[in-house]
Design brief:
By secondary structure, the protein is an alpha+beta fold. Helices cover 18% and strands 51% of the residues. It has a single domain, classed as Immunoglobulin-like (Sandwich), CATH 2.60.40. The chain starts with a strand and ends with a helix. The relative contact order is 0.21.
């Protein structure tokens, strides 16, 4: 395990069997100021000779008004909304006054890499009658941009398809 040189501080990389690399983008903060709720998103993807076609998106929503269930999600960037596959609940627990809800989903690598070209993401969550709009913090935008320019873009240049 090592911190990826070009994305130091934001990404940890792992050598995987078969000569590829797995990348873990550390938790990135997003905020919904209107509802005083926070979201932390981490992403795992591989770049290897044997192409992986999906990335794992894990996210935690923290706050008094955090949703216990999610109907759907969408990540907006580049004037497009990318909807990951089915969202699964990992856990929901109360911690002091806040609810901590952890979820996981998958998104194709191609769609993820397209999103990364514009790091000003809005992570939308629909739960019952409530809609959450989490805006990427400056740290999240920097992590996304650095991951794209330091890892994804060079890999795309080296091979015709991600």
């Amino acid at each position: 395990m090592a911190t990826s040189g070009s994305a130091r501080g934001y990404v940890v990389d792992f050598l995987v069997e078969g000569g590829g690399m797995q990348y873990f983008v550390k938790p990135m903060p997003f905020e919904d100021d209107a509802l005083d709720v926070e979201l932390e998103l981490d992403i795992t993807f591989r770049i290897a000779a044997a192409k992986s076609d999906s990335a794992t998106l894990n996210f935690t929503i923290i706050g008094e008004q955090a949703p216990k269930t999610i109907d759907s999600i969408c990540i907006e960037a580049n004037s497009a909304c990318q909807r990951p596959d089915r969202v699964r609940t990992m856990f929901v627990e109360r911690n002091d006054d806040d609810l901590h809800a952890r979820y996981t989903s998958m998104l194709s690598q191609q769609r993820l890499f397209n999103l990364m070209t514009d790091p000003a993401w809005t992570f939308r969550v629909w739960s019952g009658q409530r809609t959450y709009a989490f805006e990427a913090s400056s740290r999240a935008r920097k992590a996304i941009a650095t991951t794209y320019s330091g890892i994804v873009e060079p890999s795309l240049s080296a091979s015709p398809t991600p």
